[in-house]
Amino acid sequence: MPHSDDPHPTQPRQRRKRAYHHGDLRAAVIDAGFALLAEKGLDAFSVAEIARRVGVSAAAPYRHFADRDEIVAAMATQAARELTAEMRDAVEAAGDEPVERFAVTAGVYVRYVARRGAGFNVIFATRLQKLRDESLAAAGRELIDVLLDLAVATGRAPAEALVLMERHIALAHGYVGLFRDGFFPQRNALDEVADHAIGGSRDLTRRASAQ
């Protein structure tokens, strides 16, 4: 309810109408969803909370999405694409050494999930499989292909590279999960935790090479 001293009580509603009548409500819902994920995680994901944050009615997000899972799928698709792009950039900047090129993606993952809240647990969420979302499936495959190709480039056969990639993902996801849960002392900034993930992946790959 507007305050009684508000000289233009209808102005906020008018601003919201101008903001979304061109069709950018979908993007606003996704942005608010990422913010909610980063703050509270997937279990607390709520369409009503997203609508509140965007400043629209609880029914408004359903103009673009059939249900909660479709919103999550759209976010997962965007997350997979963003992660793929950021990993490729980091790999190109890492030089030519295959172990290092693979390891830096662990740091990218830690920083990305800490910032956006969407990791492999969202991109490959079991509950989204029923949607058969082709865009999400393609984005997920591209992300996995980048990581698997980097693992193969360290000198592994495809089957061995797959195991290495799985361990690499588990390590990076574990680090960022513990970071988000407050496990690390406050002196451990995000960049430091990301560096630990990179070092852990580097050691993992080199130990596997020595076996």
Brief descriptors of the model:
mainly alpha, 0% strand, 211 residues, globular, 9 helices
Order of helices and strands: HHHHHHHHH
Shape: globular
Helix run count: 9
Terminal CA distance: 68 Å
Characterize the main sheet.
none
Q: How many beta-strand segments?
A: 0
Helicity range of the residues? 55-70%
Beta-strand percent range: under 5%
Question: What would your notes on this structure say?
Answer:
With 211 residues, the chain is mainly alpha-helical. It is 70% helix and 0% strand. It is built from 9 helices and no strands. It has helices at 11-20, 25-40, 47-54, 68-93, 98-116, 120-123, 134-153, 158-180, 190-210. Helix 5 runs antiparallel to helix 7 and helix 8 runs antiparallel to helix 9. The radius of gyration is 20 Å and the shape is globular. The model is unreliable at 1-22 (pLDDT under 50).
